[in-house]
Amino acid sequence: MDTVSLARDTPAADLLPTEELTDCAQAVLRRDGRTLLSYGTGAGYSPLRELIAEWFGVHPFRVVLTNGWLQGFSLLVGENIMGRNIGVECPMHDRAQKALLKLGAAVMAVVIDEEGLGVDDFAGQITQYARPPFVYTMPNFQNPTGWTMTLARRQRVLEILQVENLINAEGTLLIENDSYGLTRFEGEPLPALFDLSGQTSVYSSSFSATIAPGLRVGWFIVPERVAGSLIARANDTYISPVLTSQAVCFEFLRRGSFEPHLVKLRSELKARRDAMIGALEKHFGGASWSRPEGGLFLWLTLPGYPDGREILKRAEGVTAVAGTEFGAVASCLRLSFASAAPDEIEAGIERLAAAV
């Protein structure tokens, strides 16, 4: 029996534009190999920085490319957070949470629901505890739940920070992770917190979900006061970014290949999301789940069922991730609909139901 993975946090291999990226890699190495295979600035490949800056109407100095989103996040928050409260959503992206705990931060968890960050809880914790140096959130198709923060909640989060005078030159830095925003296959896009804040917050994303995870290209748009120190920490950490991967991404974008690829990717993700929801309706009566309009994940809640970790131990031929990995209650599971084909998803859900 082949194992069906509903656990992976990347698109399946058949969703990657492999042939086009191969051609892009050959082209950039032929054209600029001597530069790309040498050391470069910690800020990243300049043409790609300039293109992203053009997308958002900011100076390229504010755009920093990193070796994947997680490394950039770790570099951004890594100084002077030992023992300090960092505002995070709960459940939370497990790798970001582990990075904070490894750096010695104290996690100030704010519960989220189908509409996003719980603003009453957020307001209470912001006023009760010492001013957090950072607040982290993933407003679009959140990992692990797939939930999207409503416009009203986005506006309220910024109001709370502004009322408490926390968004200023030396105040709290709001970090927005929008790694899945461009995967939207239903509904209408909402304005980023970055735009609603007047571009005073941090906007971050990655090409892992939208081009290829193995290229390891993350990017951050940060305030000018932060950019210099972030670039310096990048230089101190890894001397030089992976310029070749960044150049391949730029070539893919420059050729006009990105938009056609996104159209295909969104269509495939929607088909797989629909297959998963159909299978859950068939095999999981009494349970509930999110219905994401993009992203890679769906959040399954099993009220009155055994601990999700025990279910996964019993499950044969299928993998998923227990909610406890994200700081959530034990009766939840994160299911990835991006990492398997529709027919595999049907089989995987059936096997999971058998374990329950």
**Major pleated sheet:** 5 strands, mixed
Tell me the name of the CATH class of the largest domain: Alpha Beta
Discrete helix count: 12
Shape: globular
Q: What are the low-pLDDT stretches, counting only 5+ consecutive residues below 50?
A: none
Q: How many angstroms does the end-to-end distance come to?
A: 19 Å
Mean pLDDT across all amino acids = 93
Number of E-state strands: 14
CATH architecture type of the largest domain:
3-Layer(aba) Sandwich
Query: How are helices and strands ordered from N to C?
Result: EHHEHEHEEHEHEHEEHHHEEHEEEH
CATH level 3 topology of the largest domain: Aspartate Aminotransferase, domain 2
Number of domains: 2
* Strand proportion: 15-25%
Helix content: 40-55%
Structural class: alpha/beta
How are the strands ordered across the major sheet?
2-9-8-7-6
Q: How large, in whole angstroms, is the Cα Rg?
A: 20 Å
Characterize this entry briefly.
The chain has 356 residues and is of the alpha/beta class.
Walk me through what this model shows.
By secondary structure, the chain is of the alpha/beta class. The chain folds into 2 domains: 4-15 and 259-355, Aspartate Aminotransferase, domain 1, CATH 3.90.1150; 18-254, 3-Layer(aba) Sandwich (Aspartate Aminotransferase, domain 2), CATH 3.40.640.10. Helices cover 42% and strands 16% of the residues. The chain has 12 helices and 14 strands. The strands form 4 sheets. The chain has a 5-stranded mixed sheet, with helices on both faces. A 4-stranded antiparallel sheet has the order 10-11-14-13, with helices on one face. A hairpin with a 7-residue loop joins β10 (288-289) and β11 (297-301). α3 (69-77) packs parallel to α4 (94-102). The longest helix is centred in the C-terminal third of the chain and has 26 residues, at 258-283. It is globular. 44% of the residues are buried.
